[in-house]
Model the fold of this input.
Amino acid sequence: MLTSRYLMQLEERYRSLQEALVTLTDVLLHTQSEEEHLHAFQVAGQTAIAFFREEEIAMEESGCIALAANKAGHKRFMHELGELLHRARNDGSGIPAATRLRRDLLPWLHEHHRVVDHQLVHHVQKIGRSGETTAMAKLA
Done:
């Protein structure tokens, strides 16, 4: 059963992704080491992939109608993160990439989470109200 505890764990993973992106921004702004930049991108990317995978599985197994929009958003996010990595490597400075990350990607992620990701919560609440517990996945 998709539990409120599991939903809270997904929320914690989202916060971990935010923290990884803030750390990435700090590394891009305050270090010149390409190795440190790459490591911070790797951590942020791996954190995103793990969170997105879990969330998509939960949406798919519970029958959430926002799954396609969520997957599209995740694909866009990963593309943008890759573009930032490319930019940081080509510019020889992390400052332009950090600026774009703070200005564009972090606000976009927040809005995506607030609107699209929360459709899973609304879906689970709807299932609970309608008594359709058989449509809920065992993810706990």
